[in-house]
From TrEMBL:
Self-association and partners: Interacts directly with isoform p52shc of SHC1 via its SH2 domain. Interacts with TRIM71; leading to enhanced SHCBP1 protein stability. Interacts with both members of the centralspindlin complex, KIF23 and RACGAP1.
Annotated gene: Shcbp1
SHC SH2 domain location: 44-272
Species annotation: Thinocorus orbignyianus
Keywords noted in UniProt: Acetylation, Cytoplasm, Cytoskeleton, Phosphoprotein, Repeat
Compartments where located: Cytoplasm, Cytoskeleton, Spindle; Midbody
Biological classification of the source: Eukaryota, Metazoa, Chordata, Craniata, Vertebrata
Boundaries of every Right handed beta helix domain copy: 407-510
Superkingdom as given in the UniProt entry: Eukaryota
UniProt name for this protein: SHC SH2 domain-binding protein 1
Primary role: May play a role in signaling pathways governing cellular proliferation, cell growth and differentiation. May be a component of a novel signaling pathway downstream of Shc. Acts as a positive regulator of FGF signaling in neural progenitor cells.
Primary localisation category: cytoplasm
A Pfam family hit: SHCBP_N
Amino acid sequence: QEDDDSCSDYGSCDKPGTASGRPVPDGNVLFPDIFHTDHLLFYERFKAYQDYILADCKASEVKEFTAEYLEKVLEPSGWQAIWRTNVFEVLVEVVDVEYSALKAVVQLSEPFLCESRVSTFTLECMQELLQLKERRIPLQELWVVYDESGEFDQSALAVEHVRFFYQCIWRTWDEEEEDDFDYFVRCVEPRLRLHYDILEHRVPSDLVANYQNLLSQCEELYRKFLDVRNSISSSDLDSEVENVSMVEGLRLYEKIEHLKQKLKLIENPLLRYVFGYQKCSGLQAKGLRATGTKVTHVVSSSVTTSLLQSLIRDKLCPESCSEELEIQFHNDPLVAVNACYEGDTVIICPGHYVVDGVFCIADSVELEGYGMPDDIVIEKRGKGDNFVDCTGANVRISSLKLVQHDAVEGILNVHCGKTTLKNCVLQCETTGITVRTSAELVMENSDLYGAKGAGVEIYPGSTCILLNNGIHHCKEGILIKNFLDEHYDIPKITMVNNMIHNNGGYGVVLVRPTMPSDVKDASAETKKGIFAFLEETPETSKSSIPSFKLFGYFVQLLMTFLLFSDLGNIQPTQSADGTTCIEGFRQGVQPQCVTDELDLRDQAEISEQTEGNYEVANELGAASAKKSQMSKKRLSKLGITEADDDLMSQEMFVSIVGNQFKWNGEGSFGTFLF
């Protein structure tokens, strides 16, 4: 069997569920080696429970089916095992197996080998304990001793399957659940998948902790419920005490059912993340402090005199500041953020900070790096978590480098409110930034890379402003979620001067359902709204170029100008030879002709970049127009023939200017149909 790091539910083996692991030292030289069976792969356990042990049994038949399986594969005697409890370990010999009870009849091996946390477990004490237990030990407490002959390989696996099932899969209340459904499909498979998802760090640690907490609560309440139910006397149900017990029993039962439903949500791989997101989006803001004061939190691993003087000069006591500042010092940025209230500021000094937790920012807080982003690194070590969750009305993050490792979820999640990201570097692991419905993201002068999903994921009804950023070496650059459903609003997206390059797929991807009708007729109207800032000059409006080509011509021409001039400082003119040129009004810039300055290679490159902007805007504009058409049809069916122009003229792009799309594996824009 391979080591723990290689365990995966995608592993392979010639005989699923039958391979026995190599022996490993027990840790104490007194004990013989045991079979190493606790690192079985997902599919090995899956096949064993589905094909050999449980099949299509009901919950009430689990013990019976397990006993039948053990009768076929478990040797009734002649093998040794280590009996393990929380207090001691002792070597025993199995002399018989009671299959129906899932227990083994044992005796102490000779010589007597025992290891305990207390010194009172002598040979006599252990013999007395066995007498009290009638020498019958649950199979899940036994670890089979390794035997080179191979005779007990299947016995070791059988004991492991029993142990794992009752430790990780079985719940004490399962037997009272409905018996009309296949127990394996209903309970075993989802719990087994969850177990391996947790082992392989595919579930956020907060969700794992929540699941374990819910499970503990449910088990405790179920024990109380059983006590109450057993205490009710069948002979005197009319007594006041019995009535109180019945009311208490019903109350406990309702609580248990509520907890069981929560457990099932997390066990379901399709629903567990919905459950998790609801938890995150429900973060409660602290608001202002009772005193009304705002605190500046300074984070530094160590504070030197020079650093303190610089902070006082630049941040803490600038000349323009006339108010007294309350300052708190921390050495952990996560602790500083958790201590924040509405309006607080966190200043993070240069250093490399390693955190194991999630930044949950529910108030309007500013996180500011004091220096260059590469000098202020916050590295996330905990597996399976978000890095930063934002729900605050106005969260500002600047001059930081965020590094994510071994993650399940994205590096930044904007659930609601507005988050502004400036001059930051984001080294992602899974998804990059997610902007959820009704949330707003402003990302400026930042660099994002390394996402195994999309660099930026935009949900319907959100607002996303991307200015002067680099988004590269991700699976996809920007992914826009389907917004064509009648319940969704069109997202508002601004893209200006971004460099989207070296992504494995497309620069921009739109996810939408397959539509039966063509939307080309609506695209021309949409272009007019999207590119409202483009106007035809009198000279070109009389051109004989067809209108569609004319539109593309002006887009390409003006996008070329934008690479060399500010939009507000240029206007097209005619040169002496009739070539279109630019007049520059910036100081020190003389009027010059583009065609005279650019060589053919530069022109081709700029044309490619311009076409990328045009393609993205055109395709998304067509989808936006389709959304408008669908809305009009729905209103028409309701008898509404005139709609608010502001509502019906929603456009996806507020602006798309100067973006460069280079070396993306599939091109500038793509559509994922479902």
